[in-house]
Design brief:
The complex is a heterodimer of chains A (95) and B (343). Chain A is α+β, with helices and mostly antiparallel strands and 95 residues long. Chain A is built from two helices and five strands; from the N terminus they run ββαββαβ. A five-stranded antiparallel β-sheet of chain A has the order 4-3-1-2-5, with no helix packed on it. In chain A, β3 and β4 form a beta hairpin. Chain A starts with a strand and ends with a strand. Chain B has 343 residues and is of the alpha/beta class. In chain B, strands 2-1-3-5-4 form a five-stranded mixed β-sheet, covered by helices on one side. In chain B, α4 crosses α5 and α8 packs antiparallel against α11. Chain B is globular and about 75 Å long. The two termini of chain B are 35 Å apart. At the A-B interface, α1 of A face α1, α2, β4, α4 and α5 of B.
């Protein structure tokens, strides 16, 4: 079963550093057909995802990883380009 | 996270537009709504680009308002912007709304009184904030048009409006957007973040009437939640000691430690330390002279989106000489600050 690992980084506090982590994991089968297609489109061409809004700062970004036959594939996207189901899957932790 | 101005999320519209259980007519309408909404968002993006161009010609523009209107909206734990307008903002029974309104008003006064700047764009633009964004949202941000504040999860962070330096930090991103227009990546990104920490900290010190010795130079001290405090964390960042263990986001202290692709909240460490060092070297109040040098360097030369740290450092040295030619200790303090971080 294909799974996605999602990591949320950035924000004013600098998530993704040594102490602040925000991670989630989803089975692709848990997503709606529309969200599955959106994820497929993002992995196919992440450059096509909407860029950050001009002047935007302290927003979150998302790193999404999936395992393929060729190995792990990771893309990094601005938050507004990521389906809500993936954004909502992460939990913030202090390490 | 999504920062679009919409009521129904795009993915909801497209999902329902493909739902065969709905009538063809309904699906057609949903598809049309999704397309139109997309174009409206593109229009907003273009409007932001227009802002960038307009800033370059700001001297030719007339003033929007003699002083900015401050507005606060309540997202009510959704991610829909801007949210519902908050009535009686300055006296609201909601402490978050009251803080957001009052502190934003104070930041406007800070920029006016200290730097003679009329709001974020120097032409009196409205300063809009949305509070209670999302659920247990551990962030505050500037989305290119307005401020957004989360409530925190109550564990790692508390309400992000609790930190007046956080409010000053976010508003300063707008100032940067309407002046130097620094990108948000590489060295320019680190400078962008540093400007917000420097002016956010100056605002905090100005409100408390502190001099450089009395200031704590901590960013985000007032938003740290009980779980983080119990672990010994006192702030997001420490401008006086960027690598300190009490920082949730410890940073490099030397320019040579900045690596390509580093998050701007980490690459801001060396310019933060340079500013702090210059302020402490000169003494007095941070906003009176060193702050003026930084403000002039940020706003007086037009946009340079990809400005590097060395060129910015050199600019501040030159500005210090120009603005304070009769007081060479200012330029000496600025030089000391940058040399301390290897620039």
């Amino acid at each position: 079963m294909e799974r996605l690992q999602i990591e949320r980084i950035g924000g004013v506090a600098g998530f993704g550093g040594p102490h602040l982590k925000s991670r989630g994991e989803l089975a692709l089968s848990d997503l709606s057909p529309a969200d599955r297609q959106a994820v497929e489109d993002l992995f196919r061409d992440p450059q096509k995802a909407a860029p950050a809004h001009p002047g935007e700062a302290d927003a979150f970004r998302y790193r999404i990883t999936r395992q393929t036959a060729a190995g792990a594939q990771t893309i990094e996207l601005p938050g507004h380009a990521v389906p809500a189901a993936l954004r909502d899957s992460v939990r913030d932790v202090l390490e | 996270m999504s920062c679009k101005c919409f009521i129904v999320p795009h993915e909801v519209l497209t999902r329902f537009a493909q739902d065969r259980e709905l009538s063809a007519e309904l699906r057609k309408g949903l598809f049309a709504t999704a397309q139109i909404s997309h174009e409206l968002r593109e229009l907003r993006g273009q409007a932001a680009k227009l802002t960038s161009v307009a800033v370059a010609h700001a001297d030719a523009l007339i003033e929007l308002a003699p002083s900015p209107t401050v507005t606060v909206y309540d997202c009510k734990h959704t991610q829909t912007l801007p949210g519902a307008p908050v009535p009686h903002q300055g006296n609201s029974s909601d402490p978050t709304a009251k803080r957001a309104f009052n502190e934003t008003t104070h930041v406007a006064k800070f920029y006016k009184d200290v730097f003679n700047r009329n709001s974020i764009d120097n032409h009196g633009m409205t300063m809009m904030s949305s509070i209670h964004f999302g659920s247990k949202f551990n962030n505050a941000m500037w989305n290119g048009s307005q401020m957004i504040y989360g409530d925190g999860d109550g564990s790692i962070f508390i309400d992000f409006t609790s930190g007046n330096d956080v409010i000053g930090h976010e508003l300063t991103h707008g100032v940067t957007q309407h002046s130097l227009q620094l990108n948000y990546s590489d060295e320019a990104g680190g400078l962008n973040e540093s400007m917000s920490d420097c002016f956010g900290s100056m605002f905090r010190q100005w409100e408390a009437k502190q001099d450089v010795k009395g200031a704590d130079w901590l960013i985000g001290h007032d938003i740290i939640g009980p779980t983080a405090k119990a672990r010994g964390f006192t702030c997001l960042r420490d401008m006086a000691d960027p690598a300190a263990k009490h920082c949730l986001a410890p940073q490099p202290t030397q320019y040579s430690q900045i690596t390509p692709g580093m998050d701007p909240h980490y690459s801001s460490g060396p310019p933060n330390l340079a500013f702090y060092t210059a302020c402490k070297a000169l003494g007095g109040k941070s906003w009176e002279k060193i702050g003026q040098v930084w403000y002039h360097s940020l706003t007086a030369f037009g946009p340079t989106p990809d400005m590097g740290m060395k060129p910015f450092a050199d600019r501040t040295r030159q500005v210090a000489h120009t603005l304070y030619s009769a007081t060479p200790t200012v330029a000496a303090a600025v030089d000391q600050g940058w040399k301390h971080v290897g620039l």
